[in-house]
Design brief:
Blueprint (H helix, E strand, L loop, with lengths): L7 E9 L4 H11 L6 E4 L4 E5 L1 H16 L5 E9 L23 H5 L1 E10 L5 H12 L4 E5 L2 E7 H17 L5 E9 L6
Antiparallel strand pairs: 1-3, 1-4, 2-3, 4-8, 5-7, 5-8, 6-7
Helix pairs in contact: 1-2, 2-5, 4-5
Length: about 190
């Protein structure tokens, strides 16, 4: 199986900092078209699996819809390719690559701050791969180094476009097992 025939996973938690957190979470999930991914939610997190293009489409939409509420929301996700346990998702790999979500000009302006870490576990030159991909993120958002991660600041939609590009470029570079950890903060009162 090539990397494009293997499912990508995103195991995520959406955390609204608000008394109506249940409504924010359920409303966000209800608005998100998940027809092209396998999805399961338990008492800890939600997992989506499928083609990379659709996994990133769904997780970006979830963040945009949550941010539209105006509430301070955080999103933590672990994206992976090459992990076992994806037999039930094979049907989703034959879906076309068309995005199921569109964004407004206002969505494109939504600010977010994030930290991400990339782990090309079996890449020959893993450090060079990581540094190349951090450099690539600079074409999407502001990038700075912080202990244990790379900090991102800028447009929420551009940020997710960059994260998808970084992940797929790492796979295209020959890594068969890739993990990317992302923490995103939207509508934070710290950013005024």
């Amino acid at each position: 199986m090539t990397n494009y025939e293997r499912p990508v996973n995103a195991d995520f938690t959406l955390s609204p900092m608000s008394d109506d957190f249940i409504e924010v979470i359920l409303g966000t999930l209800e608005k998100t078209n998940t027809s092209k991914v396998w999805m399961e939610t338990d008492d800890v997190s939600t997992v989506v699996r499928g083609k990379a293009v659709h996994v990133f489409d769904v997780t970006k939409a979830i963040c945009v819809y949550a941010a539209r509420t105006g509430k301070h929301v955080s999103f933590q996700a672990t994206y992976s390719l090459g992990c076992p346990g994806n037999e039930e998702t094979e049907a989703f790999l034959s879906m076309n690559d068309t995005s199921e979500h569109t964004y407004t000009a206002e969505d494109e302006k939504m600010y977010a701050a994030a930290k991400f870490s990339l782990y090309p576990i079996d890449a020959e030159n893993f450090l060079e791969t990581i540094l190349d991909q951090v450099e690539k993120m600079k074409t999407y958002v502001k990038v700075s180094r912080v202990p244990t991660a790379t900090k991102l600041e800028g447009s929420l939609t551009a940020m997710f476009n960059g994260l998808e590009e970084v992940f797929t470029a790492t796979v295209d570079g020959g890594a068969n097992h890739v993990v990317m950890v992302v923490s995103v903060s939207m509508n934070s009162p710290s950013h005024q």
